[in-house]
Amino acid sequence: MATTTDEPSDPTATIRGVPLSRVALYATLLALVGAYVSPLYSGLTTAFKTQDAFRETSPLLPPITGFTIDPWLIAGSELASGMINSFALTIPAAVLSAAFGSLAAYGLTKVDWRGQAFLLALFLAAVFIPYQAVLVPLRQFWSMIGLTQLHDRGELVELIVTHIAYGIPICTILFRSYYQTLDDELIEAARLDGASIARIYRKIVLPLSLPMFAVTLIYQFTQIWNDFLFALVLLTNRSNYVITLELNALAGSMATNYSVQMAGAFIAALPTILVYVLFGEQFAKGQTI
What we know:
Keywords: Membrane, Transmembrane, Transmembrane helix, Transport. By secondary structure, this protein is mainly α. It has helices spanning 20-47, 51-56, 70-109, 116-127, 135-145, 154-179, 184-192, 197-208, 210-225, 229-234, 243-253, 258-288, and strands at residues 14-15, 18-19.
């Protein structure tokens, strides 16, 4: 009598040799990517459409008919002054906040003095102060100083100093966590050779800080460039408007022209995108150290 043996079946279900769990994972990831990219794609297609094409076609359809670059030209001309003011604000504020944060972190980690723990606690607490909590005293403070009475660009100076002061705490915390990983024996050897605190920072600590400078500069550039609240409170002269205020004015003055608004949004976001593209490798190195 012949007997048959049942071969054990594979408990893992497959689709054309690919495990079903992996198919489900990839499908979920594709759905998430589509949910993230679709608003960007629809905004980009809208920016190249005429008003008639926008009203008559779906935002997801490419501008095959009704293609135009006029929204980009209009938005570019309207945002040009705000773009220049934003660069004049963001570059010095980002550089100085990172530089002061590096110096403060060096003093809190590699220099021994009384009161370090208390000062570090103040820096840490300052990181968690929301913008909304300081708007009224900030406006009152700059009204007493009166920089706007000295120069037409005084409001931009006020905004630069505000962002420097607000960026120093987070830069200090980031640099401090990095400086704690530096070899103390190297710094101690420099001290034994007679190097001063300033010389040790300039010759040893600063060159080793370049990856963290990339992190803090990219972070600060993005935060300051995208700021709207401080600019709204401190800037009253239209000639001093930064890109976020000009973009808001663009949306208000052309409420029905969505093509211009979308083009303006992409123009305003372009510098931060370029910063991440150009310095993304340095940013990743600084994050992994």
